[in-house]
Amino acid sequence: MEIRNSTVVTEFVLLGLIQSRDIQLLVFVLILIFYLIILPGNFLIILTIRSDPGLSAPLYFFLGNLAFLDASYSFIVAPRMLADFLSEKKVISYRGCITQLFFLHFLGGGEGLLLVVMAFDRYIAICRPLHYSTVMSPRTCYALLLTLWFGGFVHSIIQVALILRLPFCGPNQLDNFFCDVPQVIKLACTNTFVVELLMVFNSGLLTLLCFLGLLVSYAVILWHVYRSSSEGKNKALSTCTTHIIIIFLMFGPAIFIYTCPFRALSADKVVSFFHTVIFPLMNPVIYTLRNQEVKSSMRKLLSRHAFC
């Protein structure tokens, strides 16, 4: 896609998360410590699942992909944000902004679809256990994985297409610490009402529908678990509860950001900060802390390498 000739803005000035220099340095240190602790944990989850044959079930296959998506997602915004904390002028080129926006929605859309796939996996495992090995075969798992990657790509291309059609002739100050559709649209020197409506339908409405659909799905699963008397009842409850926590962490901020495009809210930056920097790394960790099989395999892996 070509950039329109009416676009004369070649870079955007990011106003950042906060203006106070002292608070910026404090946030920089806290984020850096957080990343040095949590980010290796995500890669440890991936390594544990790949190295333990006992974790070959579809549930762990999708958990490993969740950790990969979240770790990749965290590299889109946070590194540049940390660099900007140490610089006086926070500038990103027009093409760099479009690239950041593309990968933000590519990985974010893929992760949203992955949570839907994980809900489907739990529904089959708990409500249709006799058909689980047939329905969730390795071939099906890889097909679902390719589908969610493709879905994230299509979602992202639509977002990028909305931006590339807009002319930008100034101002170029972006009231955020990264490039995202709601803030970039507001800088266009044309009427953006229709574009903002399309953004609401592409991001806001789809996110809301996925969120409500997932809640209904897990309500059905929990009701089935509640009525059953199987030995794995507690494990199923723990797994579903963890999934629901991740759903709220993933979709809650996204709904807040993408369903209110026509007005700037004071909490936008704070919600965006947790949505793009903190929560992506926490999702797989939250799941792992509530999964005994993964924790046990992780301890064995660490003990084995520590002994060597």
Q: Residue ranges: pLDDT <50 for 5 or more in a row?
A: 1-5
Secondary structure class reads mainly alpha
Oligomer: single chain
Radius of gyration from the CA trace? 21 Å
Average pLDDT metric: 84
Beta fraction: under 5%
The number of distinct structural domains comes to: 1
**Class in CATH?**
Mainly Alpha
Helix content: over 70%
Major sheet size, sense and barrel closure: 3 strands, mixed
- The geometry reads as globular
CATH topology: Rhopdopsin 7-helix transmembrane proteins
Spatial gap, N to C terminus? 52 Å
CATH superfamily: Rhodopsin 7-helix transmembrane proteins
So, CATH architecture? Up-down Bundle
**What strand order characterises the main sheet?**
2-1-3
- Helices and strands, in order, run as EHHEHHHEHHHHH
Total number of helical segments?
10
Quick one: how many beta strands? 3
Transmembrane segments: 23-47, 59-78, 98-120, 141-164, 205-225, 237-258, 270-289
Subcellular location: Cell membrane; Membrane
GO molecular function: G protein-coupled receptor activity; olfactory receptor activity
Keywords: Cell membrane, G-protein coupled receptor, Membrane, Olfaction, Receptor, Sensory transduction, Transducer, Transmembrane, Transmembrane helix
Short description:
This protein is mostly helical and 308 residues long. Helix content is 74%, strand content 3%.
Write the layout of secondary structure elements.
Layout: E1 11-14, H1 21-51, H2 58-85, E2 91-93, H3 94-127, H4 132-135, H5 138-164, E3 173-174, H6 181-185, H7 193-227, H8 233-258, H9 268-289, H10 292-307
Parallel strand pairs: 1-3
Antiparallel strand pairs: 1-2
